[in-house]
Fold this protein.
Amino acid sequence: MGKDSKMSNRDTVIIRTSVIGIIANVFLASSKMIAGTLANSIAIVLDGVNNLSDIMSSLVTIIGSRLANKSPDKNHPMGHGRIEYISALVVAAIIIYAGITAGVESVKKIIKPTASSFSALSLLILSAAIAVKLFLGIYVKKKGEEVNSSALVASGADALFDAILSFSVLISALIYIYTGINLEAYVGLFIAAIIVKAGYDMIKDTVSDILGRRVDRELINSIKSTICKEDMVNGAYDLVLHNYGPNRFLGSVHVEIDEQISAKEIDSMTRRVMDAVYRQHGVILEAVGIYSQNHGDDLTAKMRTEITEFVAEQPGVIQIHGFFIDMERKYISFDVILDFDIDDREKVHSHIIEGTERLYPDFEVRVTLDLDI
């Protein structure tokens, strides 16, 4: 299946799952609000209001998915995939608003309590709601994970939270029936806090996507493995992926090849690599940079070994690659990846350069400090 077909199927899954969520939440919201009104229960009413926010969330998810699937245009050449992150923020804002509203109403109920009158019907509705929400939460979260939709995953997790909250409302109702102790306003306040927390977590997670979170290590390693299957490639490094929405990546990479390979062979090789990565991973490589691997004579090999051993001894060094020595121009070049835990990266960088120059003072040394991505 091509990438376009996968994206089309993804949009279909998101929309279908969201519609199922809307239908279920319309039923739940109307049932709970009727039951809550009849029982004069603020907790049940607020539980129903929470379902209304879920309906709005599903609608925003559908709209966001449709807009994100718009074709690229002059102003947005990489498409509109990041709209999904914006829609996720809107969903989070709706969730937080619902939580704050629920909290305000619960506080009012604590200050001016009123007696509740639970019936067998209201308890039955609550029990049914718990079962529906459990099924819906598991289903929506699973579908969200399958298609990598943060909005669906959040909706599924929210539905599972709702099931727990509805269960707490049911328990408080039973406590009131059998003991006369009215805890529903406090349960409502607890529900409000949980809703706000869920919205906050969703915002934090989505902002992380917008800022550019670390790409899944499994995907990185899988792409590098595909690249290294090319006969001419001796190693793949510096793979950078730019996220333009869920499952939409544009990237670049450096490959290490033998120095005697011609420009014609390099051009053919890079095209094969780009094609293989797109077909197998749906990732567009906009550039494939080249590291020339020179084997040279015994002196070159000795220099490479000594410098590599020295650099590897420095604190925080994760990897050394792109090593090249130009004996005629007296030039040494290589890249170093340092751990993010190193406080003063520039100090280590300078120390590596100075140490290499001490080993071979007749050579110009250039060390590129790469990121651990």
About this structure: The longest strand covers residues 249-258.
